[in-house]
Amino acid sequence: MNLKMKKDGKFEFLETGGSGEPLLLLHGLFGGLSNFGAQIEEFSGRFNVIVPTLPMMTLPLRKVSLAGLVDHLAEFVVHKQLHNIHLMGNSLGGHVAILYAIDHPDRIASITLTGSSGLFESAMGNSFPPRGNYEFIKKKVESTFYDPATSSKELVDEVYNTVNDRSRGIRIVMTAKSAVRHNLAHKLHNIEAPTLLVWGKQDEITPPFVGEQFHELIKDSELHFIDRCAHAPMMERPREFNRIMGNFLERVAARQPSPA
Question: CA 54, CA 73: separation in Å to the nearest integer?
């Protein structure tokens, strides 16, 4: 599909259109549109797939935080007049999805979390990444995947350029620290929507025990592990991820009351 990002006021997003319910995909700290190519292709026939940019690099500095991203998402949903939303978030995007869903349960039809932060995460750390060290960044990006070859040079270059821009790098660290401080263990029981958890068995950033904890704390949840897969199952094992998510969304639809 040849889709382009749209700009509408302060919001930047991709939208496939169509009459289906909205499927909102939220990227992680270093993520973006390219993370979800397989899901856009797979689900655009049944859903209005929307990928908003989480504006870590453009929010006013005083608002650079997890709460600032959740507020931005809430404003975007109101702006687009979205209801019956199927939310999917990877890593930090999962963290944002959880907080939004707890605050706005009336707008949520389902939640899918994959490698979500919110309980435990081991990533770049809480200090500024070493500037100018390409090999360090390359290894960190490769650790996102079970197979390092999944990490393209374009992806490494994008992360490298981000951390080597001092202003953008500071924003990344501020956002990461905010996420670490915002542990969700005491809030997850408030999630009302059916929730799908998809975890890579070899995830070293949010290890499998994190998925198990989410499953234990979210009452209406199911947990699936994908082998030979790490922190970004939707990228590394897209066919298996899409099969699991597609089956889940079909079962969610079957549970919804028929229109009068």
Answer: 8
